[in-house]
Design brief:
single chain; mainly beta; six-stranded mixed sheet; elongated; myosin heavy chain binding; FN3_dom; thick filament; MyBP-C_THB
Length: 1251
């Protein structure tokens, strides 16, 4: 048997790297690259099915096993499908062309990014037979001759039972020397060439103009067994191709009976999700009905959708259910074919028996059920009820109710509750190349879930990119190395819920929140270079004059979170250099300079007045900027002899007062009184302190805070004089968090976010803002922008309709990011519905207009609150509400309109998000009754006499047309109808005649008239009420002779208002008086009753018959007819018994067979012989009667030997021998058993069906 097509495809794949669909800007160049497994393979490129030749526009390159196609100056006409062909492999891809943006000029280099090389092995390229090439794409006028032989492949088909369908395959024959060989298969190995007959026809033809071979397979009068997968294989001397397709056979529409309707009380298995976790109930789903109607190819999909775990068992049971049961004498009502119940619920199984006193037995899987707390038996009149409480999976079984020798069979299916998603997916944002792991938690361990990306199911076979993992109740989807193409919405589905999350994959960008700054330090001081970047995982190196800094005991390098530090202790002149920090993997270079300050003290004579040596001591104070949280170290060189006293003070700018650490305020004139120890002003230890040295003093603030900002005054005093200087310290910090953002302009998947600047910018201007978003029930915030937002508003997109979100904002200045703002008010992206459809005017009168419409195509998560109907007068622009408030119906009657007005009408659908676009009547509607001629539309069954029986209900409905509303008149035989006896109901579109209980006097000719002004229409209806006739009259026994009696009678006086169709004649023996019918439907009024028994006396009676049936009573003869005895006796003839014996003879021989190992097979023949011959089976002359591997059957002369799962050793010569007393006969055949070639990768369900 031929190998499965999919396996063959993978074996011949010629590509190791396939070109990908690319999007470029018009005017730029596009590059497609492919790699073949071997070098030297000839590669062809195609554009829309036509081979590309090298030119200025198309540049084709080949280097070893690498091949490329460059398309220069791309235009809109290049937006088509391309293909690359190597050997027998063909890969399709697309070029998508977009218009260039006005604000930017895209260079060809930007528009043609090099295809990303994936580290994981690319999946093998699909060959031509797996490329989706529809027959519509291939033009018959220009037949292609690709590497794959098919020009047009057979497509999937659908047919109703009893219908016919034709599958067509076309093969290019231009390059073929002779006609290709074509085979059609069903499943994997059944060759249909041997099945041609009444239901299957194969045709082929050749078109000499187009050089195309056409092969057709026609299926005639299809039945359900024809459904399944098919394959068409075409082969030539050196080429081979095949195509798979499937046939779906639908049942003819039938009326469901009570037996086929299953009472499945279950909740909807897959609820419609609105938002996160909310579900709306749907109507109950009849899984059995779905399976019964579905084609076999859909069984697996239905099993997953509705949570079916034992699909094979259900299909077996479904076969049994379809068998019709014979009428029962013991049961008035049997069990339904199947019942379904939720786990933990109770179920009642009920039958009705014919005998109220009958005893019943209940069996479960063939074993009698005993009374217990869970099983309760009830007998109520004719009803017998079995109640099962707290159903478990153990109760999922076959049940029987037995009354005497009769049984009623049913199946009980216990359905486990749907699998719910207890912890939904979280949105994720990663950089290119990072690992992504989506995690969700479901209500049951080991549950089956389905993953989708943007609505397309993810499977292990599609790509090696995705990995699926189960850990108890947790389900994982893992992407090891993410790419930009992985961005999108990922969905996990169970049979009880859905959860959606968004993945955003960003290219790696690095922002510098704080760069390193130039430093000037003195000898033996500490120098600290610090920078802050956006990614805390980024590592980097420090350079000194271009050479990497090696840390040691004096030089320390640290990386904590986003902050990188280079600390140099005990600075020396050799440390003066340019220092740089380079983040790994990014083209950044953060540089700063370290300057070494040498303190030179000139020789001064004794008694030198104090002097403060600062770089700038002018009228304006020197400003020192420090980042909040950092250490401020202020070195002030001083001189003076004797050594001056140093006093540090913080100046209050408002009244120029001095503030010491004890917050005492004194006038500046009193500063001479402060000539005391420094401890009175500042501590020598603690966060804010002063350190005194011989030639300088140091002012230190550990972890600067906002309160430390201000003007600091240093005063030097000695007996010779004093000096002072003001130093301004400015503390800068990250901004304060902004206030919570506000959300406005909410749409289907977008909203507008607005916010205000922070109250305090940290002393540095705000550079921009960062926006984050999260789902209300989630804890993970997702960043929405990587480039800082300069404005105070932002339009957020790509949200999921119906999900509740929150937003928050960060402010960013040169120091860094603020803390996050409070979260915004929760909001839900919803959109108004689309406009209503099929909006039309149904009717118009002098003061009303009737409108109707259909619901919108898209309603969305906001639901539908109702419809708003408005009208506008012709020539006006004011729209007036036509109805008070909203209407939930899809029709409306607008009343109290002015006759003659011309009005436009429009309708809008309304939900939480607002109003939809309006659906409008294009032409104005004139409010005026349209005159329409009166006319009856008499139903076909009323055009002939309507016959009803006495006591039946008469309900005659006659539709009509006519405007304005016509006047309706009913007459019977020219007289007005009696309203007490007959009911008449009239509407604007029909008139109804109603008689609750028909009597004979209701018969007659009825006439109904329709009148509008001087126009009218009338119809006549004849009603005939019939009853059973009276008995015949004047019955006479005319004559009696031999074994015969002659009767005569006259027709009945009352024929029941219907023609007498005949008579029923019956006889009764005087002894028993049991009546037997002699004639029925007898047309004459006289008859002769023959074959009467000698010596008996007979009475006769006669019933008359019409359409209504037999008369209630019969006419009976007064005197009996006596049949006289005669003296003759009867002697029966004597016959010789015939000899029917016959020697055995085979009427149908055994046939040589070749079968596949592992599948049960049978050998059959037919034999004739009297008496019935005794049968013996032999294999290679060995008797098989004692071997359990073989089963022998004999039915109506047909002999069958069943061999269970044969192996190659079971092949050989099999002989069947028949022996009786008249002789013997034998016949033999050969059986060959081939090895099982089934691929282990084959679908196990296919193997199951095969069994």
């Amino acid at each position: 048997s031929p190998l499965p097509v999919k396996k063959w495809v993978h074996n011949i794949s010629a590509f190791t790297k396939k070109p990908k669909t690319t999007e470029v800007t018009a005017g730029s160049a596009a590059v497609f690259e492919a790699e073949t497994e071997k070098s030297g393979i000839k590669v062809k490129w195609q554009r829309a099915g036509t081979e590309i030749t090298e030119s200025e526009k198309y540049l084709i390159k080949t280097e070893g096993n690498k091949h490329s196609l460059t398309i220069n100056n791309v235009g809109k006409e290049d937006d088509v499908t391309y293909a690359v062909i190597a050997g027998s492999s063909k890969v399709k891809f697309e070029l998508k062309v977009k218009e260039p943006e006005k604000s930017e000029t895209v260079t060809p280099a930007e528009a043609a990014p090099a295809p990303a090389a994936s580290e994981s092995p690319a999946p093998p390229a699909e060959s031509s037979q797996n490329t989706e090439v529809s027959s519509a794409e291939t033009k018959p006028e220009e037949p292609l001759d690709p590497i794959g032989l098919f020009v047009a492949r057979p497509q999937d088909g659908e047919v109703t039972v009893g219908g016919s369908i034709t599958f067509t395959a076309k093969v290019a024959g231009e390059s073929l020397l002779k006609k290709p060989s074509v085979k059609w298969f069903k499943g994997k190995w059944m060759d249909l060439g041997s099945k041609v007959g009444k239901h299957l026809q194969l045709h082929d033809s050749y078109d000499r103009n187009t050089k195309v071979y056409t092969f057709e397979m026609e299926i005639v009068e299809a039945n359900m067994t024809f459904a399944g997968g098919y394959r068409c294989e075409v082969s030539t001397k050196d080429k081979f191709d095949s195509s798979n397709f499937s046939l779906t056979v639908n049942e003819a529409p039938v009326i469901r009976t009570a037996e086929t309707c299953l009472d499945l009380h279950s909740e909807t298995l897959i609820p419609f999700c609105r938002g996160e976790g909310k579900s709306e109930s749907q109507s109950d789903v009849d899984v059995w009905d779905i399976l019964r109607k579905a084609p076999p190819t859909e069984y697996e999909k239905i099993a997953f959708q509705y949570g079916i775990t034992d699909l094979r068992g259900m299909l077996k049971r479904l076969k049994r259910i379809k068998k019709e049961e014979k009428k029962s004498t013991a049961f008035l009502k049997k069990l339904d074919p199947a019942y379904q119940v939720d786990k933990g619920q109770k179920i009642k199984l009920m039958v009705e028996v014919a005998n109220p006193d009958a005893d019943v037995k209940w069996l479960k899987n063939g074993q009698e059920i005993q009374v217990s707390g869970r099983y309760i038996f009830e007998a109520v009149g004719n009803k017998r009820i079995l109640t099962i409480n707290h159903c478990s999976l153990a109760d999922d079984a076959a049940y029987e109710c037995v009354v005497g020798d009769e049984k009623s069979f049913t199946e009980l299916f216990v359905k486990e509750p749907p699998i719910l998603i207890t912890h939904p997916l979280e949105d994720q944002m990663v950089m290119v190349g990072e690992r992504v792991e989506f995690e969700c938690e479901v209500s049951e361990e080991g549950a089956t879930v389905k993953w989708e990306k943007d609505g397309i199911e993810l499977t292990r076979e599609e790509t090696f990119k995705y990995r699926f993992k189960k850990d108890g109740k947790k389900q994982y989807l893992i992407i090891n190395e993410s790419t930009k193409e992985d961005s999108g919405h990922y969905t996990v589905k169970t049979n009880g819920g859905v959860s959606v999350a968004e993945l955003i994959v960003q290219e790696k960008k690095l922002e510098v929140y704080q760069s390193i700054a130039d430093l000037t330090v003195k000898a033996r001081d500490q120098a600290v270079f610090k920078c802050e970047v956006s990614d805390e995982n980024v590592k980097g190196i420090w350079l000194k004059n271009g050479k990497e800094v090696i840390p040691d005991e004096r030089i320390k390098i640290s990386h904590i979170g986003r902050i990188h530090k280079l600390t140099i202790e005990d600075v020396t002149p050799e440390d003066e250099a340019d220092y740089s920090f380079i983040p790994q993997g990014f083209a950044y270079n953060l540089s700063a300079k370290l300057q070494f300050l040498e303190v030179k003290i000139d020789f001064v004579p004794r008694e030198e007045p104090p002097k403060i040596h600062l770089d700038c001591l002018g009228q304006s104070p020197d400003t020192i900027v420090v980042v909040a949280g950092n250490k401020l170290r202020l070195d002030v060189p001083v001189s003076g002899d004797p050594t001056p006293t140093v006093i540090w003070q913080k100046v209050n700018k408002r009244n120029d007062l001095l503030r010491n650490t004890e917050d005492s305020i004194t006038p500046s004139e009193n500063s001479s009184d402060l000539n005391t120890d420094n401890k009175l002003l500042f501590e020598s230890e603690g966060r804010v302190r002063v350190e005194m040295h011989e030639d300088h003093c140091v002012f230190i603030i550990e972890g600067a805070e906002k309160e430390d900002e201000g003007v600091y005054r240093v005063i030097l005093k000695n007996p010779v004089g004093e000096d002072k200087a003001d130093i301004t310290v400015k503390v800068i910090d990250v901004p304060d968090p902004p206030e919570a953002p506000t959300i406005s302009n909410i749409g289907e998947d977008y909203c507008t976010v607005q916010w205000q600047p922070p109250k305090y910018d940290g002393g540095q201007p705000v550079l921009g803002y960062i926006l984050e978003r999260k789902k209300k029930k989630s804890y993970r915030w997702m960043r929405l922008n990587f480039d800082l937002l300069k404005e105070l508003t932002y339009e957020a997109k790509r949200m999921i309709e119906g999900v509740v979100y929150e937003m928050r904002i960060y402010a960013v200045n040169s120091i860094g990011m603020s803390r996050p703002s409070p979260a915004s008010q929760p909001f839900m992206p919803i959109a108004p519905p689309s406009e209503p459809t099929h909006f039309t005017v149904e009717d118009v009168s002098d003061s009303t207009v009737s409108l109707k419409w259909r619901p919108p195509e898209r309603i969305g998560a906001g639901g539908l609150d109702g419809y708003m109907v408005e009208y506008c007068k012709d020539g006006s622009t004011e729209w007036i509400p036509a109805l008070p408030g909203l209407t939930e119906r899809t029709s409306a009657l607008i009343k109290d309109l002015v006759t003659g007005d011309k009005l436009y009408f429009r309708i809008k659908a309304v939900n939480l998000a607002g109003e939809s676009a309006a659906a409008t009547i294009k032409e104005p509607v004139t409010v005026q009754e349209i005159l329409q001629r009166p006319k009856f539309w008499l139903p076909r069954h009323l055009r002939q006499t309507l016959v009803k029986k006495v006591g039946e209900t008469i309900n005659i409905v006659i539709p009509f047309q006519g405007k304005p509303r016509p006047k309706i008149t009913w007459l019977k035989n020219g007289q007005t109808l009696d309203s007490k006896d007959v009911g008449i109901r009239n509407s604007s579109t029909d008139t109804i005649l109603f008689i609750r209980k028909a009597e004979l006097h209701h018969s007659g000719a009825y006439e109904v008239t329709l009148q509008i002004e001087n126009m009218s229409d009338k119809v006549a209806i004849t009603i005939q009420i019939i009853d059973k006739p009276g008995p015949p009259q004047n019955i006479k026994l005319v004559d009696v002779w031999g074994f015969n009696a002659a009767l005569e009678w006259s027709p009945p006086q009352d024929d029941g208002n219907a023609q007498i169709l005949g008579y029923t004649v019956q006889k009764a023996d005087k002894k028993t008086m049991e009546w037997y019918t002699v004639f029925d439907h007898y047309r004459r009024t006289n008859c002769i009753v023959s074959d009467l028994i000698m010596g008996n006396e007979y009475f006769f009676r006669i019933f008359s018959e019409n359409l209504c049936g037999l008369s209630e009573t019969a006419a009976t003869t007064k005197n009996p007819a006596h049949i006289q005895k005669t003296g003759t006796t009867y002697k029966p003839p004597c016959y010789k018994e015939h000899d029917f014996s016959e020697a055995p003879k085979f009427t149908h021989p055994l046939v040589n067979r070749s079968v596949i190992a592992g599948y049960n097979t049978t050998l059959s023949c037919a034999v004739r012989g009297i008496p019935k011959p005794k049968i013996f089976w032999f294999k290679n002359k060995m008797d098989l009667s004692g071997d359990a591997k073989y089963r022998m059957f004999s039915k109506q002369g047909v002999l069958t030997l069943e061999i269970r799962k044969p192996t190659p050793f079971d092949g050989g010569i099999y002989t069947c021998k028949a022996v009786n007393e008249c002789g013997e006969a034998e016949i033999e055949c050969r059986l060959d058993v081939r090895g099982n070639q089934m691929n282990p990768m084959d679908n196990p369900n296919t193997a199951m069906k095969r069994e």
